[in-house]
Amino acid sequence: MTALTIYSDDASQRLEQLTDPAAIAARLADIGVQFEQWQANQPLADDADQAAVLAAYQAEVDRLNAQYGFQSVDVVSLRPDNPKAPELRQLFLAEHTHADFEVRFFVDGDGLFYLHVDDKVYATLCEAGDLISVPADITHWFDMGTKPSFKAIRFFTTPEGWKGDFTGSDIATKFPDYDSLTAELRG
């Protein structure tokens, strides 16, 4: 279930929770974040590699490339049995920014973006079919949970791809993590 939970940035208050995609898109637009729902219905094997995922979604990739002129596109895919999953989770859990805007199209599974804007944190659960575009310089972090299961196409306006500028903040430790929040939402 796609969901948006908004907290005060000290995690003392849950301010709002939305599950309607149109309401989520409107609320995120207020902070400059683009959110859309596309079709993610191409059959993919659990072990589908980058080439297979990109081939299955070539029309969507071409559409975004034409609109934004991306320099590079890749696929991030993690399953619970990946030995590097705990290490990657810790990397993405650290609050960071990017000089580039961050665009993700989830084609399988789900993940949780936490967007720290002004005095609020917007916990955005994205699932297959969701596209999120986080503008440059918005502080955020990403949680895939202790048993990650997702595939997302990532779009970059720089040839280097993903590069995080970490804030050093421990803010991510103050909020419900992926496992807790998704259990509550699906409860």
Note down, in words, how this protein is organized.
The chain is an alpha+beta fold and about 190 residues long. The protein has a single domain, classed as Jelly Rolls (Sandwich). Helices cover about 25% and strands about 35% of the residues. It has five helices and eleven strands. Strands 1, 2, 3, 4, 6, 7, 8, 9 and 10 form a nine-stranded antiparallel β-sheet that branches. A hairpin with a 5-residue loop joins strand 1 and strand 2 (about 15-20). The longest helix is centred in the middle third of the chain and has 11 residues, at about 60-70. The protein is globular, with a radius of gyration of 16 Å. The termini are close together. About 30% of the residues are buried. The mean pLDDT is about 90.
Summarize it:
The chain is of the alpha+beta class.
Mean pLDDT across residues: 92
Question: What is the strand content?
Answer: 35-45%
From the helix content, strand content and strand pairing, which structural class follows? alpha+beta
Weakly predicted, low-confidence segments: none
| Order of helix and strand elements from N to C terminus | EEHEHHEHEEEEEEEH
CATH class: Mainly Beta
Radius of gyration: 16 Å
CATH topology: Jelly Rolls
Q: At CATH's second level, what is the architecture? A: Sandwich
CATH superfamily grouping: Jelly Rolls
The N- and C-terminal alpha carbons lie at a distance of 11 Å
Instruction: Tally the helices.
Output: 5
Q: Could you estimate the helical fraction of the residues in percent?
A: 10-25%
Our count of domains comes out at 1
Instruction: Identify the overall geometry.
Output: globular
Largest sheet: 9 strands, antiparallel
Count every beta strand, where a strand is a DSSP E run of 2 or more residues: 11
